[in-house]
Design brief:
- By secondary structure, the chain is α/β, with parallel strands linked by helices.
- It has three domains: about 5-110 and about 325-355, 3-Layer(aba) Sandwich (Rossmann fold); about 115-230, 3-Layer(aba) Sandwich (Rossmann fold), CATH 3.40.50; about 235-315, NadA-like (Rossmann fold).
- It has 15 helices and 15 strands.
- It has helices spanning about 5-10, 25-40, 50-55, 65-75, 85-95, 120-135, 145-155, 165-175, 185-195, 240-250, 260-265, 275-285, 295-305, 330-340, 350-365, and strands at about 40-45, 45, 60, 80, 100-105, 135-140, 160, 180-185, 205, 210-215, 225, 255, 270, 290-295, 310-315.
- The strands form four sheets. It has a six-stranded mixed β-sheet, with helices on both faces. It has a four-stranded parallel β-sheet with strand order 13-12-14-15, with helices on one face.
- It is globular and about 65 Å long.
Length: about 375
């Protein structure tokens, strides 16, 4: 998503500067007032990585696909103000009805991982793969991808995956074809395939910038082609972080997201999706000790919710997701005031054909 292109659309606007000077109390009171006034015609989904000042007003919290599905079930809401990032709002628009309006409070709230795979790159890659391997490859894409990439995967017989069901979907893919192309997060793809018994020397990285493989073995042996993309947050958890925690607190368990590197996941005690991490800490006994390798807004929230446990971030110097943090209370208020006036700014709209093809990929996942 190119910001200049986004802002050229007359419906996409930047928030006026005046909102930055309002007090927190004034903004909170106004948000409450608008929510009460609009009732069920307004629905605010909030991703786990959002700031507390935003998440406190969310009608539902969860991961990206979960929130899109909840939005789709909420037929009474005319306006869905999605507090997350661009690709998440796209998925919500794909799954909701034509009459429902999905809005992103700040169009600059993108996802660096999703932006690491565009259609031009993907089509070039696919041409090379078809020429090299023939019809032996099935594409899979993490839901953390653009609607266009989901549509490409859908058109080519593939499916979307989440961090919760990646193992099931990779297993399914191997019943369909000999090889898979996994977009756009190489780490989730590598960790999932490795857990299913695929050796690392049967995984090749595809570099979309150089349009070449990064692989030293025999390509005929490759079963998994990993797109060279990553989450800028989770890639910042390192082996040194783990060594430091092990040295300082040897009795502390380390749990990380599978978007972390293979080396970090291998040295951790446990790994799983955002929901898995939350559930694990919720079910952990009082007095247990945890170092968590995921986004900082969520880690801080988990710490606040569990004063009976000792919890730290695996990387003490970690910053929150910068693009997710674009959505703040001033942007939420500005968006809601526009909605209250009947103004539709920053609407996320996926075209009909892209939606149809993307739904194919989503439905294949939901069937398994």
């Amino acid at each position: 998503m190119n910001l200049l292109d986004v802002l050229k659309n007359e419906q996409n606007q930047m928030m006026p500067e005046s909102y930055k000077y309002l007090s927190m109390e004034e903004m909170e009171a106004r948000v409450v007032e608008i929510k009460e006034k609009m009732g069920k015609s307004l629905f605010i989904p909030g991703h786990h990585y959002q700031k507390d000042e935003v998440i406190k007003f969310a009608d539902s919290t969860g991961d990206s696909l979960q929130l899109a599905q909840v939005s789709a079930k909420n037929k009474e809401a005319k306006y869905i103000v999605f507090c997350g990032v661009h690709f998440m709002a796209e998925t919500a628009d794909i799954l909701t009805t034509e009459d429902q309006i999905v809005i992103l409070p700040d169009m600059r709230a993108g996802c660096s991982m999703a932006d690491m795979a565009n259609m031009e790159q993907t089509e070039k890659c696919w041409d090379v793969l078809m020429e090299r391997f023939g019809d032996t490859i099935l594409p899979l894409t993490y839901v953390n991808s653009t609607a266009a990439i989901k549509a490409f995967v859908g058109k080519n017989g593939g499916a979307t995956v989440t961090s919760s069901n990646a193992k099931e979907m990779v297993e399914w893919a191997f019943t369909q074809k000999k090889r898979i192309l996994f977009l756009p997060d190489q780490h989730l793809g590598r960790n999932t395939a490795f857990d299913l018994g695929v050796p690392l020397d049967q995984m090749a990285v595809w570099n979309p910038i150089t349009n070449q493989f990064e692989f030293e073995g025999n390509l005929d042996d490759v079963k998994v082609i990993l797109w060279k993309g990553h989450c800028s947050v989770h890639e910042n958890f390192t082996v040194n972080n783990i060594k430091e925690v092990r040295a300082a607190k040897p009795d502390m368990r380390i749990i990380v997201h599978p978007e972390c590197s293979r080396e970090v996941v291998a040295l951790s005690d446990d790994a799983g999706s955002t929901k898995y991490i939350i559930d694990t800490i919720n079910n952990a006994p009082t007095g247990s000790k945890w170092a968590i390798g995921t986004e900082m807004n969520l880690v801080k929230r988990i710490i606040d919710q569990h004063p009976d446990k000792e919890i730290i971030s695996l990387n003490q110097n970690m910053c929150p997701c910068l693009t997710m943090n674009r959505i703040d209370l001033p942007h939420l208020l500005w968006t809601l005031e526009n909605v209250e006036k009947g103004l539709t700014t920053n609407q996320i709209k996926v075209d009909e054909q892209t939606s149809k093809d993307a739904i194919l990929a989503l439905e294949r996942m939901l069937q398994h």
